[in-house]
Amino acid sequence: MMKKIIKLKGAIALLAVMTFISCDLEDADSLNGLSADAISSNLSRAELSQAVAGILSDMRVGLATQIDVQSIFGREYYFFTGSDPRFEADVVTANLDNNTFYTTTPWNARYANVRNINTVLEGLANTTADFSTAEIAGIRGFLNTMIAHEFLMLHNNQFSNGIRLDVADFDNLGPFLNETEALTAIFNLLDQAATDLAGAGDAFPFTLSSGFSGFDTPSGFLQFNRGLTARVEAYRENYPNVLALLGDSFMDMTGDLTTGVFHTFSLTGADLANPLFIALNQAAIVRVAHSSYIDDALPGDTRLGKVVLRDMPVDFSDLIGTHDVFIYQSNVDNVPIMRNEELILLAAEANMMSNPAAAVSAINVIRNAAGLADYAGGMTAAELEDEILFQRRYSLFGESHRWIDTRRFGRLAELPNDRATDNVPMAVPVPFNENQ
Predict the structure, then answer these.
(1) Cys bridge to 99: 25, 339, 397, 432, which one at CB 3.0-4.6 A?
(2) Nearest Cα to Cα of residue 105 among 43, 58, 57
(3) What is the pTM of this model?
């Protein structure tokens, strides 16, 4: 018997006006309640620990909006909410407004945290505290890795529309850089950070969150830095360097695929709950997998456990969902920044032209972990590319990769559109009042 479809066509709620924080404004988020002026003039040990906690916390601001928008672009899932139709009316159709939350929230959040990190770097340069040379190197290596991550998040949204990287002086901003220039600058920043981390001794003079367990020393964090740099180099198609970087990262072909670095959440104090968690079978606010995720899956693929069949399908303006996204099963689940599974897939990609056998070995690690037999397809670079993108689609579902992957391989046109009005954009527009 056909199940009843729930129609989400309720009244549109009035939305609060969001304050826009452009790069040329002076106000930045507080660093865990600390004074920015106090930090920049003379960073102390106590201030450093608080500031690092604030930076890690602020990395989560706007995260759900960016992941939702990129996942919709990549036709991984739809996000339906009866109070705001713009996820359907704007994001799915690629009719993007340069002055609304899905444009401004990630931009504001990332640049606010960039400013915070630059404030700590300025304070480190002016400090009179008794930090050792190795400790200063470790602090600088950590901070520059974090700022590179924030810039990469911005780049992934803006792509050909460009981003600013020279923003240390908010009264004298640098130029917009195109996608090639931005990735080169991010790579250089990560490489500089790696040099500092290599000379940082055995311990950081601050504590990281539990999401960095195993990566909370300079040597462990350096492995994360090298993994993040490998991602950048894959984006730049510099595959020999990807392989070299992976060799210095935490990639482990026989290890746990979930090992990695994560955002953490909790319900204690003023901390944040995981904004990507929604209980099953909701009607007003839902994330539902695109039908192609279920239809295209191979029989027996355990990664289909990331979605759950709903009691009743939902329909929002003729976009129908039958399966809830259930990657996160509680509101305190961690959200990955980078996992071993991604690194193994990067190794497959980096080998697909130069060493097909090695690429297949990496592919098989992923396939076997998902309950699938070894790869038995063709060995040309084009055939391996198809397989790698397929595996990335299922392994990294809902982690903001598919839209970026199809864009960098020139395959955006392959993403499905369920209505005649739907389109997939190349990039998110620069916010309207950004001083270009």
Answers:
(1) 432
(2) 58
(3) 0.93
